[in-house]
C-alpha cells in the first residue's frame, strides 16, 4: 500500500562509523574516543554523549539500516525516523518482516510480521511504515499516554493527515487486538499539542478527573501582542503552561533570560483575560501527585473519578529515575 504522507525521514543526528572506516575500534573505545552504537557501528564518544536519549535512539535506527539496507522499520523506530514522539532511548530497534516470517528479537532488533495493507514510506534509501500505520500500531500496542503523544505529533507533522484517517486504519485492520485502546487515543489526537509534554499533560489531566481544557487558546494584549496558552479553563480564567525543562537548562540560551521572558509574558497575560497561571514541567506531570496538587491549588475541581491504573502506568513508564541521564 502506498504511503499517505509526505513526511521525510530524519537523518542520523551523528556521524556513524563502520569498522572498515575506524581502524582498531576497540582501541578507540578503550581510549575513550569512540562508543559502540551496535555491532560493527561506532560513533565519536563526546558527540554521542551530547545527544538527547531520543536522538541516540534515532542513531541506533540508522546504525541498523547500515547493516540491513532493506529493512522496513516500524513502531518506535518508524516514529523516530518520522520525527514523531519517542520517549527516552528504547534501545531495541523494530523491523517488520513479510508474512510467513517469524517475529523474534536478536542483536538489538525486534521483528514483527507486517500485513499486506501496511502503508510503506521510502526516503533517503530507507523504508518504514508510514505515519498512519505507525501511529495506529503504537496506539494499539503501547500505553495510551505514549499512543496519544505519537498520534498528536504525527498530526502536527503532517496537517494533511486527519483523525478520520487514523480511525479508518484502526477499524479496517483484521485483528481486533488493541482496537478499543486505539479508539481512546484517536478520539483525542490533535495537532494542537505542540510537544510530548503537552500530550502527556492532557492525558494525565483527564485521568485525574479534571475537566478538559481548551488547547492553544490565543490571548491578544492591549499592544497587539498575541500569546498562545497551552491549557485553558475559561470558567476559572486559569491557564496552565507546559514548560519543558530544556527551556531553562541552558541548552537553548541563557536560562535567566528565558525566565525573564516568561515573567514578562505572564505579566502581559495577567493584565488581560487570564487570572491565574500555573507552570508545570515533565517531573510534575509524570509523577502525577505534584500536578494534581498544582491544579487543585489553583481552584480547579475534579468532575470524574481518577483512572488509577492509567496514572500508575504514566509513573512507571515516564517519571524520571535517579539513574536517568
List the helices and strands and how they pair.
Blueprint: E1 17-18, H1 25-30, E2 34-38, E3 41-44, H2 45-49, H3 53-67, E4 72-73, H4 75-82, E5 93-97, E6 105-106, E7 109-113, E8 120-123, E9 126-129, H5 131-141, H6 144-157, H7 163-172, H8 179-188, H9 196-207, E10 214-220, E11 226-233, E12 238-242, H10 255-270, E13 276-280, H11 282-287, H12 289-297, H13 308-318
Parallel strand pairs: 4-9, 5-7, 12-13
Antiparallel strand pairs: 1-3, 2-3, 4-5, 6-7, 8-9, 10-11, 11-12
Describe the protein's architecture and organization:
This protein is an alpha+beta fold and about 325 residues long. The chain folds into two domains: about 15-190, no CATH class; about 195-320. Helices cover about 40% and strands about 20% of the residues. It has 13 helices and 13 strands. The protein has helices at about 25-30, 45-50, 55-65, 75-80, 130-140, 145-155, 165-170, 180-190, 195-205, 255-270, 280-285, 290-295, 310-320; strands spanning about 15-20, 35-40, 40-45, 70-75, 95, 105, 110-115, 120-125, 125-130, 215-220, 225-235, 240, 275-280. The longest helix has 16 residues, at about 255-270. It is globular. The mean pLDDT is about 90.
End-to-end Cα distance, whole Å, is 40 Å
Overall 3D shape:
globular
Report the C-alpha radius of gyration, rounded.
21 Å
Q: Element order, helices and strands?
A: EHEEHHEHEEEEEHHHHHEEEHEHHH
Q: Note the main sheet.
A: 6 strands, mixed
Number of E-type strands: 13
Strand order of the largest sheet: 6-7-5-4-9-8
Give start-end ranges of low-pLDDT stretches: none
Q: Which structural class do you get from the secondary structure elements?
A: alpha+beta
Arithmetic mean pLDDT? 92
How many helices does DSSP assign?
A: 13
- The domain tally reads 2
Share in helix: 40-55%
Strand content: 15-25%
